Amino acid sequence: MEVLFDKINDLKLITPLTKHEQIVNAIISKIESKELKKGDRLPSINKMVAEVGFARKTIVKAYEDLKGRGIVESKNFKGYYIADVNTKTKLRVALLLFAFHSFQEDFYNSFREELGKKYIINVFFHHNNLDVFKDIVARISGRYGMYVVAPIQSPEVSLILQKIQYDKLLVIDRHIPLPQEYSYITQEFEDSTYNQLEKLLPQIKKYKKFILFFKGDSDYPIGILNAFNKFVKTHNINAKVEERYIKDSISKNTLYFFIGDSSLWKILKDSKPKNYTIGEDFGILAHNDNGIKEIIFGGITTISIDFKKMAQESANYLKFKEPIRKIIPSKLIQRNSL
């Protein structure tokens, strides 16, 4: 490792570089010159302190920086090793989502585009399963430079996420209580859904029945159910909550409110052979907008946040590391389905 120590000592002469940057640049330089190869062990913290005279925390910061980029990995009680020789990577990102719903696909595509090719993004799905969530977090902890997480809304999840260093975690989509130093870009469901329903009151009242499809054992936000129940009670609307849409059960003069997309596609399919006209014979309201809802059947009215905006702001947090604590409001997108 003498060549590495020599390189660090050479970089000491370059004034603009901090001590931790000198170590990082020296390791990258030796990888690019092929003097360090994948699997090679780096000097221990104590060895680096003795050879280059920097503080332990400076050495650790440099190694952790390289870990975040996926270039270095640490093995329990065995030290630090070269994990990847791709030195162009700026950051390895773990993106933990509920599932690959269409709106989360929109988020991912915008997130990927905004970050660019020098960021490596690995995507994981917990499917609203606490055991799966805990297993994924346990497997990926300490292996990424940044964690972008759509959490399950549970007190236990809040405690799990607090094990991640605050400046390496960004909470997205669902809001959970965390200490104030943690960053988040989330949405609020109950008040925002209720407010958008209020705007739609004249259209809603033209239907004889208002049905919300809500599965209690799913990842559906409870705030939407609370908003629906409050709204229909306030305005004395004939309403019902059902777990799922049953094939061929579509009826006239009914407004259907969907959170998930699978039942939405089924009811639209059922309307065709009956020659029902959307917005006249029956109505559709959906949560979470996407490109398909914009064009199918002349457009589906939605209550939704701008997932592309959430993705862009999330990417900016990763690039600039400026703390952010933001709740993105839902908006009403009126189309022809009511």
TrEMBL record:
GO MF terms, alphabetically ordered: DNA binding; DNA-binding transcription factor activity
Coiled coil: none
SUPFAM superfamilies: Periplasmic binding protein-like I (SSF53822), Winged helix' DNA-binding domain (SSF46785)
Keywords attached to this entry: DNA-binding, Transcription, Transcription regulation
Keyword Transcription appears in the UniProt entry: yes
PROSITE patterns in the record: HTH_GNTR
Pfam families: GntR
Name of protein: GntR family transcriptional regulator
Gene source species: Flavivirga aquatica
